[in-house]
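Friendly challenge for the regulars: who can give me the structure tokens for this chain first? No prize, just bragging rights.
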Amino acid sequence: MISIMLGWQKIFDGGLGRSLKAGATLFRREDPVEFMYLVRSGQIALERPMTDGSALTLHIASEGMALAEASLFADAYHCDAIVRQPAIVAYLPKAAFLAELQKSPKAALGLIETSAREVQAQRARIEILRLRRVSDRLDAWLDLFGKPAKGGWVRVADGIGVSQPALYRELARRRQ
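First reply, four minutes later:
Bragging rights claimed.
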């Protein structure tokens, strides 16, 4: 299969940009959806505030990823966008982004491809999180994604829903 994933990102080349510090909020739940965002660098989490004061992380967008594209056809955001690592985002008014997609079928297909891959990854993560044991979760993650690059184990712990110490205990057990 030939990947056309990057075509939609070019829509932002002439767009506006914004730098955000860790802890900053890009938008809040119930804010009107006025822009489409592309994360150029850093990490931004989509979080749903819970009644107990905690936050449910729905997605973490990093370099090259769209942010809140699921809200593209909504009137208001259903979550908060909180900067986890200092970030730079490019953004366009929602209407301008949609107009660009209409002009470029390749860009539209690229966005569909990106979204489909994200749905696949989320479905895999759901299945991994259903497993009870850390060892089973790690096996499933490694089977799907392979061994992470150096420094990537932190992301694995988050991806399989365990604490870093729990993951490192499992890795130490496997080395013995």
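The helical segments are 94-103, 105-130, 134-145, 153-160, 164-175. Residues 5-128 form a domain with the Jelly Rolls fold (CATH 2.60.120.10). Your move, everyone else.
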